[in-house]
Amino acid sequence: MPDEKNIFVFGLDPFHLEQAKCVRGDEEYEFHGVLDHNEVVQPKKYDIPKMIDEADATLRDFDGPVHGLITHWDFPASTIQPIICRRHGLRSASLEAVLKCEHKYWARVMQREAIPNLTPEFAAIDPFADDPLEGINVPYPFWVKPIKGFSSTLGYRIDKADDFYEVLPTIRKNIRRLGEPFNEILKHADLPDDIAKVDGNHMIAEQIIKGKQCGLEGYVHEGHVAIHIIVDCVKDTEKKSFTRYELPSHWPQRIRDRMLEATKALMAHIGYDNQPFGIEFFWDDETDEIGVLEVNTRISQSHSEQLIMTEGASNHQVAIDLALGRDPAYCRDEGRYKQAAKFLLRRYKDAVVERVPSEDEIRAVLERFPGAKVKISVKEGERLSDLRDQDSYSFECADLYLGAKDQDTLLENYQQAADMLGFKFSDGGTFEQIQFEKKRF
Fold first, then answer.
1. C-alpha to C-alpha distances, 123 to 136, 137, 342, nearest whole angstrom
2. Where does the record locate the signal sequence feature (predicted)?
């Protein structure tokens, strides 16, 4: 088609290409990959200068007009995108605005300025200092996490100083995996002096925010902030690891309204524009207090399949519209199901994977639950503790995307689907029950 729009997507693979095509007017778009999927998602090493050069060359050497560059992946794609967009005159938020969200210390500074009542106490920690906790006044208990991270990697609850010093060797050993690549990104930004000294190899201590957790996904277009979905983020019954991302949210409207007002104030203060975002909140239903956890600077691929199931279109619609300078009109309500979730099937104990589900077993799940998707994350012979970029308490073995008429049916379907997948582990164990207990909002 002569009027086709060329949309470039970081780390595009067949699974996510299928999602990207599930948008309004999909015949108008031609999708192209930027950087190989294995370079973008959990590679052995992130070579940021090489990745920037390759992404730049892909757009520069393309034989035709480039209309937009989008990402559904976290770091480093989310921070390379504004660099490449700036070079090629494409629409996106500025790199500095992105870093005000993704640099966890800078983000907290912005939040304290814009929405102080929703921001916990925090402090930067240099894990390589002689006494990293010296001068840290955040009261126990608190969380520590890297200035740049994802999937809760190297995130720990600290109830006393001994807890921190117990995990400090692990932090020192592993923090540079993302810290050094993040420092390469920081070289491209204009940083305030107080932020520049807190580089990617720092941690942040944050006062613990209590309550239930949800994520708002939205966008800013020409200064206008809008929210298109709210996702309930549910942890296991011991509150260690996320077990599902569920649509639609069960939170009351008055809390949603408060979160929207806080989001508008924060994104305006940051100067964020012409880009999707996701912002996560806690709500304590006993005190009715809310608090902000973090802001991401992209649509989330973890939400795409649920939106297709419930709304009939992927959130890629939002990213594409913004890249083309259009105000997104995302509201279809044409999905097959009323309820949907991405389930993260986990093991909490280390073991070697002795067997993964066969093609027949996966096919049986897909036939039993129409519209379902199954992605296996491990291989036979692989030790779970060797998996890259896992959270600090469990190992993600598979992702299951399921829809249903209501929440009860959805949770029952998940238990059945997990039981149909014939995983086997060297310790003779199976998937712990704490992730299947019917925890509801």
1. 6, 8, 33
2. none
CA-CA distance, 99 to 188, in Å (whole number)?
A: 11
Where in the chain are all domains bearing CATH 3.30.470.20? 212-435
CATH code, residues 121-207 = 3.30.1490
If you count them, how many residues does the chain have?
A: 441
Tokens of 213: 């957790």
Q: How many of the other CB atoms lie within 10 Å of CB of 266? A: 25
* SS3 at position 278: strand
- Would the pTM count as exceeding 0.85? yes
SS (H, E, C) 31-59: EEEECCHHHHCCCCCCCHHHHHHHHHHHH
Q: Which CATH class is domain 5-94?
A: alpha beta
Q: Cα angle at 343 between 340 and 346, to 5 degrees?
A: 170
Quote the DSSP letter at residue 187: T
Task: Tell which residue, 256, 158, 153, 243, has the closest CA to residue 208.
Answer: 158
N- to C-terminal Cα separation, the chain: 47
Coil, strand, or helix at residue 404?
strand
Tell me the pLDDT of the chain (441 aa) as tens digits.
557 999 999 999 999 999 999 998 889 999 999 999 999 998 989 999 999 999 999 999 999 999 999 999 999 999 999 999 999 999 999 999 999 999 999 999 999 999 999 999 999 999 999 999 999 999 999 999 999 987 678 999 999 999 999 999 999 999 999 999 999 999 999 999 999 999 999 999 999 998 999 999 999 999 999 999 999 999 888 888 889 999 999 899 999 999 999 999 999 999 999 999 999 999 999 999 999 999 999 999 889 999 999 999 999 999 999 999 999 977 667 889 999 999 999 999 999 999 999 999 999 999 999 999 999 999 999 999 999 888 888 999 999 999 999 999 999 999 999 999 999 999 999 999 999 876 665
Mark residue 104 as left, alpha or beta (left: phi above 0; alpha: psi -120 to 50; beta: remaining).
alpha
- Residue span(s) of the chain under CATH 3.40.50 come to 5-94
CA distance 146 to 395: 19
Q: Are 205 and 122 in contact (CB under 8 A)?
A: yes
Distance CA 161, CA 166 (A): 9
Rg of the chain (C-alpha set): 21
What is the topology classification, in CATH, of domain 212-435? D-amino Acid Aminotransferase; Chain A, domain 1 (3.30.470)
CATH 3.30.1490 domain position(s) in the chain: 121-207
Q: What's phi and psi for 142, nearest 5 deg?
A: -145, 165
